[in-house]
Amino acid sequence: MNVNKNNFEAEVMNSDIPVLVDFWASWCGPCKMLGPILEELEPEYAGRLKIAKVNIDDEMELARAHRVMSVPTLMLVKDGKIVDTFVGFRPKHELKPILDAAL
Q1: What is the 8-class DSSP label of residue 2?
Q2: Annotated catalytic sites, by residue?
Q3: Is 78 exposed, middle or buried (0-12, 13-18, 19+ CB in 10 A)?
Q4: Using an 8 Å Cβ cutoff, are 45 and 18 in contact?
Q5: Alpha-carbon distance 75 to 59, whole Å?
């Protein structure tokens, strides 16, 4: 799911399930490597966790508001609070335990 400044609050901060937000850019090599991993994870966590993507080039204000300094930045939001933030590429086997712990 792509989110922007218009729906970020509703889709991420007010979500009734945890949300993994991927701040990414089309020119970012590690972002391109992470994209397919997140696509694989999405059906595994369907109904229990949302995966949201924010293109920082299109949503600079949103990236600034969340202090995104480099990409990819993954932000885990639960109950309207940012509970964890990761900068840089993470393989699937590192992401799964983090996501499982948030459920």
Answers
A1: B
A2: 28, 31
A3: middle
A4: no
A5: 15
Q: Cis peptide leading into 72, omega within 30 of 0?
A: yes
Q: How far is the CA of 36 from the CAs of 32, 42, 64, 79, 82, in angstroms?
A: 8, 10, 25, 26, 24
- Residue 102: the pLDDT is 87
Residue 67 has φ and ψ, to the nearest 5°, of: 55, 40
Burial of 30 (0-12, 13-18, 19+ CB in 10 A): middle
Rounded distance between C-alpha atoms, residue 90 and residue 45, angstroms: 17
The amino acid at 1: M
**For residue 85, is pLDDT > 90?**
yes
Q: Tell me how far apart the alpha carbons of residues 4 and 83 are, in angstroms, rounded to a whole number.
A: 20
Whether the pTM exceeds 0.90: the reply is yes
- 50 token code pair: 């949302």
Tokens of 74: 């993954």
Locus of tokens 């997140």: 38
